[in-house]
Each structure stands twice: as structure tokens, then as C-alpha cells.
Write a structure and sequence with these properties.
This protein is α/β, with parallel strands linked by helices. It has helices spanning 70-77, 99-108, 126-134, 176-180, 198-202, 205-217, 231-236, 245-251, 286-297; strands at 7-13, 16-21, 26-29, 41-45, 85-89, 112-118, 140-144, 163-168, 187-191, 226-229, 260-264, 269-271, 280-281. It is globular and about 45 Å long. The model has no long low-confidence stretch (mean pLDDT 94).
């Protein structure tokens, strides 16, 4: 695969040679079975505070939600090697009282911080978001959108090159991809529907209908727009059917827990993923926690 973007980080993680590029591309090379010492990326919940009360929120965030302890969180995250990617979320991570301290420390440690926020907060927090992007305190901004989102709201963001729309198969209609095609943001992360938290009660015939539409019509959009998928969407939408075996081997980054893990810094727990039913009290050693996660994924 020809790479034309800038190499951000190149590091060794166990038997894995990891390269991360400025367009978000990640290459991981290894001999035999992949056996990283640390996760190459990690999903980190830093707060359970949010004022939106989305009816499908699998984290069940509310305005009564607590924030994580900044010092304890950084004690864990700064153990990670330079070049590790983090997806910081919540809740609304912009409301965490220690967010600037956290992001500055991660930047100083060479860790790539990305953040996910809801588009409904875009106008309210436009100054904060621009500051974080302009100062490279976050590298990528995940923007969770609804079908009726206003494209013009994106005008408040100075640099849109590292924005990725987040959509949920089962919540969003697949027709939203047509709207995205005419927006200034062309990258999309498709998430699977999570029957966890509020997602249990929200699940209905309509969510199943929407998921089926994604399954049936997604082929029309493959290779016509920059799409990526979480592992749940890969399974629910059977993405492998659209790829050759060679493409799949290059595209698929492994099962949850083989290269990745989840941390709930609010509850100080860790798991294979945010939807895992088994969550464990964290220790002071991220490597120890990741080895446990890997053993559960085998």
C-alpha cells in the first residue's frame, strides 16, 4: 500500500512494528501471532457527565454523572508508549474539569489523543474545540451526528481535516451518507448498535429495520466515501463480504482485546470493550491489565 501522508510515529510494541500516519492510517507488522505489550489504541471514558440524555446512550450518562480522577487517570495513561492512540469520550469529555491538564500531559508524552463529542455541543463549545485542534492537544475529533444535523454548523470549526463523523447503524438512517457526501467532512466511522445501557430499552422494530437497511444498501457506498467501522459494525453488517481476503487481511485490525482495550476511568475499571459484561477493577499497571484483556480475547 502506497503511503503519501506524513509519518507521525514509528515504534515497537512487543513483536509489533507500528506506524501511524497523519491521515489516520495505521500499519502494524509482525511475524507469527501479534503479541503487543501494550494496546496500540485504547477507548477511555473520562466522564459520565452529559446533559443530552440520548435515549440510546450505552454509557447511560446524565448530569449526575461523575468525572474521573485526573491524577489516577494520568498515572495509567502515561505508562503507554509514544504513538499510542486514545479515544477519549464520555459523557461529554469537554466538561471534565481536568481536560486541559490531561491533554497537555498526553501531548508531552507523545500519546495521540482523539476525542468524541456530540454535534449538538458543537456551537456551545466551538472555542474550546478550536483551541484543542489548533494546539494539537487533540489530533482527531469524532463528531456524533443525527440524521437532521446542520452541515452549516461545521463552519465554526477552523480545521476540518481531522474530523470524523460517527454514525450508528440502527440509530441513523443509511441515507445520512448521501448528506455526508456533500459536506466538507468526508470521513465516517460506522458504529454497531449496542444493546447495552439505554440501548436495551431503545431497541425496537425500527432499530432493526434501520440496521437491515444498512446491511442491504451499504454496498452502494463502499469505496465511494471514506468509511471505517468498529468491530461491532464489522460483525453486524458483515463487511468482510465486500472485500477480498487480501483486503480484509490489510483492513482488519484484530478482535477487541487483541490490540485494543477499554478503560472506564470514572469507575476505575477496565474491559475488552465498552460493551463487555465483564469489567474489572484496574490495577496500577496498564501492561498487567492489557495482558488480562488479551487472555480473555483468545
Amino acid at each position: 500500500m502506497e503511503i503519501t501522508t506524513t509519518l507521525l510515529h514509528h515504534y515497537q510494541n512487543g513483536n509489533c512494528d507500528v506506524k501511524l500516519y497523519s491521515d489516520g492510517t495505521k500499519e502494524i507488522e509482525f511475524e507469527g501471532e501479534a503479541n503487543p505489550d501494550f494496546p496500540t489504541s485504547m477507548d477511555v471514558k473520562i466522564t459520565n457527565w452529559c446533559d443530552l440524555n440520548c435515549p440510546f446512550c450505552h454509557e447511560m450518562s446524565t448530569t449526575k454523572g461523575k468525572h474521573s480522577d485526573t491524577v489516577k487517570l494520568l498515572e495509567i495513561l502515561t505508562q503507554l508508549p509514544t504513538g499510542t492512540e486514545l479515544a477519549l469520550g464520555g459523557g461529554n469529555p469537554l466538561e471534565h474539569p481536568g481536560i486541559l491538564l490531561i491533554l497537555n500531559k498526553l501531548k508531552d508524552s507523545g500519546i495521540i489523543a482523539n476525542m468524541t463529542v456530540n454535534y449538538k455541543h458543537l456551537l456551545q463549545y466551538k472555542n474550546e474545540i478550536n483551541y484543542l485542534l489548533d494546539n494539537k492537544l487533540i489530533y482527531g475529533l469524532g463528531l456524533s451526528i443525527e440524521d437532521n444535523f446542520n452541515i452549516e454548523d461545521l463552519n465554526v470549526i477552523n480545521n476540518k481535516s481531522n474530523i470524523v463523523f460517527h454514525v450508528i447503524a440502527g440509530v441513523n438512517s443509511i441515507s445520512i451518507l448521501n448528506k455526508i457526501k456533500i459536506s466538507p467532512v468526508r470521513k465516517v466511522l460506522i458504529l454497531g448498535y449496542k444493546d447495552v445501557g439505554r440501548g436495551i430499552k431503545y431497541h425496537s422494530e425500527q432499530t432493526d429495520k434501520l440496521k437491515q437497511e444498512w446491511y442491504d444498501e451499504l454496498g452502494k457506498h463502499i469505496r465511494k466515501i471514506h468509511l471505517s467501522f468498529d468491530n461491532l459494525a464489522l460483525k453486524q453488517l458483515d463487511i468482510k463480504r465486500f472485500l477480498t481476503q487480501k483486503e480484509w487481511d490489510e483492513f482488519f485490525m484484530g478482535l477487541d482485546g487483541t490490540m485494543t482495550m477499554y478503560i472506564d476511568a470514572v469507575e476505575q475499571k477496565y474491559a475488552v470493550s465498552s460493551t463487555s459484561s465483564n469489567k474489572f477493577n484496574w490495577s496500577s499497571d496498564i501492561k498487567e491489565m492489557f495482558n488480562h484483556v488479551k487472555s480473555m480475547s483468545e
